[in-house]
């Protein structure tokens, strides 16, 4: 079974991606389990940061690597917080964390009518640290930011991301439906196809 290092320490991401990549028969291992420190993410685009994380994890581990850079792009804020999503709360006087991110976002959006936003996930996979042909997959889900959190499933901005096609937030959807339709789920589906085609995985 091929072992791939996941360039993330986020437990929520690991569980979600393990479920999504199960059909390939690969084993995703979190970089922290291999003693790999987090990489710097100095860039302004998801793809550049994901590539930096994947190259770092692959270089230190000697294994193929998979990295995800994801975030929330709010129309009313010109696409921000974007790559700074994980640290959104800290820019508004709160400690880093999912719940505080949601709190800060709802505060910043008070009185704003245009509540359209996209959750974006970019996955990058490398066979080796210097792979000249990284596999890149992007998933995007567009919805509206609710006035208050609704639902208890998921993590991140799931409780405030309302999806018109379901009439619910991500946090109200069963896990398997969320995974199949989330930004990360869409990116993972593309990535599975790319790995099958280019890496000759099952």
TrEMBL record:
<comment type="subunit">
    <text>Homodimer.</text>
</comment>
<dbReference type="GO" id="GO:0046872">
    <property type="term" value="F:metal ion binding"/>
</dbReference>
<dbReference type="GO" id="GO:0035870">
    <property type="term" value="F:dITP diphosphatase activity"/>
</dbReference>
<dbReference type="InterPro" id="IPR020922">
    <property type="entry name" value="dITP/XTP_pyrophosphatase"/>
</dbReference>
<feature type="binding site">
    <location>
        <position position="40"/>
    </location>
    <ligand>
        <name>Mg(2+)</name>
    </ligand>
</feature>
<dbReference type="InterPro" id="IPR029001">
    <property type="entry name" value="ITPase-like_fam"/>
</dbReference>
<keyword id="KW-0479">Metal-binding</keyword>
<keyword id="KW-0547">Nucleotide-binding</keyword>
<feature type="binding site">
    <location>
        <begin position="155"/>
        <end position="158"/>
    </location>
    <ligand>
        <name>substrate</name>
    </ligand>
</feature>
<dbReference type="GO" id="GO:0009146">
    <property type="term" value="P:purine nucleoside triphosphate catabolic process"/>
</dbReference>
<dbReference type="GO" id="GO:0005829">
    <property type="term" value="C:cytosol"/>
</dbReference>
<feature type="binding site">
    <location>
        <begin position="8"/>
        <end position="13"/>
    </location>
    <ligand>
        <name>substrate</name>
    </ligand>
</feature>
<dbReference type="GO" id="GO:0036222">
    <property type="term" value="F:XTP diphosphatase activity"/>
</dbReference>
<dbReference type="Pfam" id="PF01725">
    <property type="entry name" value="Ham1p_like"/>
</dbReference>
<dbReference type="GO" id="GO:0017111">
    <property type="term" value="F:ribonucleoside triphosphate phosphatase activity"/>
</dbReference>
<keyword id="KW-0546">Nucleotide metabolism</keyword>
<feature type="binding site">
    <location>
        <position position="70"/>
    </location>
    <ligand>
        <name>substrate</name>
    </ligand>
</feature>
<keyword id="KW-0460">Magnesium</keyword>
<feature type="active site" description="Proton acceptor">
    <location>
        <position position="69"/>
    </location>
</feature>
<comment type="similarity">
    <text>Belongs to the HAM1 NTPase family.</text>
</comment>
<feature type="binding site">
    <location>
        <begin position="183"/>
        <end position="184"/>
    </location>
    <ligand>
        <name>substrate</name>
    </ligand>
</feature>
<keyword id="KW-0378">Hydrolase</keyword>
<dbReference type="InterPro" id="IPR002637">
    <property type="entry name" value="RdgB/HAM1"/>
</dbReference>
<feature type="binding site">
    <location>
        <position position="178"/>
    </location>
    <ligand>
        <name>substrate</name>
    </ligand>
</feature>
<protein>
    <recommendedName>
        <fullName>dITP/XTP pyrophosphatase</fullName>
        <ecNumber>3.6.1.66</ecNumber>
    </recommendedName>
</protein>
<dbReference type="GO" id="GO:0036220">
    <property type="term" value="F:ITP diphosphatase activity"/>
</dbReference>
<comment type="function">
    <text>Pyrophosphatase that catalyzes the hydrolysis of nucleoside triphosphates to their monophosphate derivatives, with a high preference for the non-canonical purine nucleotides XTP (xanthosine triphosphate), dITP (deoxyinosine triphosphate) and ITP. Seems to function as a house-cleaning enzyme that removes non-canonical purine nucleotides from the nucleotide pool, thus preventing their incorporation into DNA/RNA and avoiding chromosomal lesions.</text>
</comment>
<feature type="binding site">
    <location>
        <position position="69"/>
    </location>
    <ligand>
        <name>Mg(2+)</name>
    </ligand>
</feature>
<dbReference type="GO" id="GO:0009117">
    <property type="term" value="P:nucleotide metabolic process"/>
</dbReference>
<dbReference type="GO" id="GO:0000166">
    <property type="term" value="F:nucleotide binding"/>
</dbReference>
């Amino acid at each position: 079974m091929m072992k791939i290092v996941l360039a993330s320490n986020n437990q929520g991401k690991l569980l979600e991606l393990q479920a999504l990549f199960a059909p390939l028969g690969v084993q995703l291992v979190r970089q922290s389990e291999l003693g790999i420190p987090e990489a710097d993410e100095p860039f302004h685009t998801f793809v550049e940061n994901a590539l930096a994380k994947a190259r770092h994890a692959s270089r230190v581990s000697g294994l193929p690597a998979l990295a995800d850079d994801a975030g929330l792009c709010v129309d009313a804020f010109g696409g921000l917080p974007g790559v700074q999503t994980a640290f959104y709360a800290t820019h508004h006087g709160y400690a880093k964390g999912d719940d505080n991110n949601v709190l800060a976002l709802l505060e910043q959006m008070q009185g704003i009518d245009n509540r359209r936003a996209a959750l974006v996930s970019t996955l990058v996979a490398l066979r080796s640290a210097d792979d000249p042909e990284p596999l890149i997959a992007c998933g995007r889900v567009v919805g509206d930011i609710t006035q208050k959190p609704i639902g208890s499933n998921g993590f991140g901005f799931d409780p405030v991301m309302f999806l018109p096609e379901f009439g619910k937030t991500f946090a109200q959807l069963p896990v398997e439906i969320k995974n199949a339709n989330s930004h990360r789920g869409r990116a993972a589906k593309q990535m599975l196809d790319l790995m099958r085609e280019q890496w000759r995985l099952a």
